[in-house]
């Protein structure tokens, strides 16, 4: 099977760049509809993460016929933990200074269970999404390892079937997530924060990316044929399913908190497939946006994790500075505020990616080398 070996795909970094820009728009006001729809950036991250992370395990399986979940989790840890814990100090300091330190919140952030204990993150509010991803990493790695070890699922042989056990298992879990969302929002509407953040209610977005990844690595010809045969319909469906997002916020919306999340991962999965199977996607992006803009957004996407980690502190620092100093000078236009905080967040995130994160990844690659190249 002809599998692309590119460690980085410019077009996927472009999608990650779009995702982090949406997050920045959500957390720093630019205009009404950008704030309303900015939250979907996290859902786009979920689908992309599901695809990319499961792809690492699928490529390992294709090469060796097995996976090493311990090595996989160690390598993910070197990617996630150093930046998170080092930056976390910045978020924890104000809690301590204001005498708001809480051991439960601190420990829940520390061990990535804040979305169950606290709802959001305690010190770093958006860290709830990192908890969802952490639970996904562990769950997927051990599910695949157990399935392969005990011959429950032979991914190569299963790929020959019209619908495989693996596909059925993933679809079953995704359906279960939707059912649990409906139950939680119907019977526990006052638990709105956790209904939005708990992993068992949100992990289907990541599993949608896993499903795309499975088709991409094991049934690529079928995936391409299906997409090309139904391209116009699928792209219209993708647009239709996401069209509500500039007008309806997730907060207080039963529709968004249940079926809306499903609409989003279907829409983003279609978009992802379009980017994967279109051999001229980079040229088309350049034609639509210009090569320079696509390059910039892709570079932002390359550093999206660090930008995501640092951007809330940048907003906090700006607000603090505004209270202490800028208010004496005069009011700054909100568009300028968005531009300033976004540029500082992006530049800070890039510095962290190319210096801090790179240091730990070099150490990882030296002592815990990947089995795939």
Short description:
This protein has 373 residues and is mainly α. It has helices spanning 10-27, 32-37, 40-64, 69-97, 103-110, 114-117, 128-149, 155-158, 165-187, 192-197, 199-218, 220-229, 231-242, 256-277, 281-289, 291-302, 304-329, 334-367.
Structure description:
With 373 residues, this protein is an all-alpha fold. The chain has one domain. 78% of the residues lie in helices and 0% in strands. The chain is built from 18 helices and no strands. α3 crosses α14 and α11 packs across α12. The longest helix is centred in the last third of the chain and has 34 residues.
Features:
373 residues; disordered N terminus; mainly alpha; 78% helix
List the uncertain runs: 1-6
Main β-sheet description: none
The dominant shape is: globular
Q: Termini distance?
A: 16 Å
DSSP strand (E) fraction? under 5%
- Structural class category: mainly alpha
Order of helices and strands: HHHHHHHHHHHHHHHHHH
The tally of beta strands, per DSSP, is: 0
The structural domain count equals 1
Query: Helix tally?
Result: 18
Query: What does the radius of gyration come to?
Result: 21 Å
Query: What average pLDDT do the residues reach?
Result: 94
Helix content: over 70%
In terms of topology, how is this protein built?
Layout: H1 10-27, H2 32-37, H3 40-64, H4 69-97, H5 103-110, H6 114-117, H7 128-149, H8 155-158, H9 165-187, H10 192-197, H11 199-218, H12 220-229, H13 231-242, H14 256-277, H15 281-289, H16 291-302, H17 304-329, H18 334-367
Helix pairs in contact: 1-3, 1-16, 1-17, 3-7, 3-11, 3-14, 4-7, 4-17, 4-18, 7-11, 9-11, 9-14, 11-12, 11-14, 13-14, 15-16, 17-18
């Amino acid at each position: 099977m002809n599998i692309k070996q590119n460690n980085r795909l410019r077009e996927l970094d472009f999608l990650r760049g779009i995702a982090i820009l949406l997050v920045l728009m959500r957390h720093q006001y630019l205009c009404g509809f950008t704030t309303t729809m900015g939250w979907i950036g996290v859902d786009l991250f979920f689908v992309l993460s599901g695809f990319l992370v499961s792809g690492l395990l699928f490529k390992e399986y294709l090469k060796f016929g097995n996976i090493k979940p311990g090595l996989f989790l160690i390598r993910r840890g070197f990617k996630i933990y150093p930046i998170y814990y080092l930056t976390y100090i910045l978020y924890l300091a104000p809690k301590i200074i204001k005498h708001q330190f809480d051991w439960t919140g601190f420990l829940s952030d520390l061990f990535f269970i804040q979305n169950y204990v606290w709802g959001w993150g305690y010190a770093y509010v958006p860290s709830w999404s990192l908890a969802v991803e952490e639970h996904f990493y562990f769950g997927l790695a051990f599910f695949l390892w157990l399935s392969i070890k005990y011959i429950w699922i032979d991914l190569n042989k299963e790929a020959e079937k019209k619908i495989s056990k693996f596909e059925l298992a993933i679809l079953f879990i995704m359906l279960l997530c939707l059912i649990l969302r409906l139950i939680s929002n119907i019977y526990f509407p006052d638990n709105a924060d956790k209904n939005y953040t708990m992993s068992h209610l949100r992990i289907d977005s990541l599993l949608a990316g896993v499903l795309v990844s499975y088709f991409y690595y094991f049934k690529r010809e079928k995936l391409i044929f299906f997409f090309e045969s139904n391209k116009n319909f699928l792209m219209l469906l993708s647009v239709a399913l996401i069209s509500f997002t500039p007008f309806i916020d997730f907060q207080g919306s039963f529709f968004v908190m249940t079926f809306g999340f499903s609409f989003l991962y279907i829409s983003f999965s279609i978009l992802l497939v379009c980017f994967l199977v279109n051999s001229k996607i980079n040229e088309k992006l350049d034609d639509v946006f210009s090569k320079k803009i696509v390059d910039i957004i892709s570079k932002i996407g390359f550093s999206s994790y660090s930008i995501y980690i640092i951007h809330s502190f940048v907003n906090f620092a700006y607000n603090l500075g505004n209270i202490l100093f800028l208010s004496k000078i005069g009011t700054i236009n909100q568009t300028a505020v968005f531009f300033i905080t976004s540029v500082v967040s992006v530049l800070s995130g890039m510095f962290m990616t190319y210096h801090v994160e790179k240091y730990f990844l070099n150490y990882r690659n030296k002592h815990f080398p990947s089995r795939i190249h």
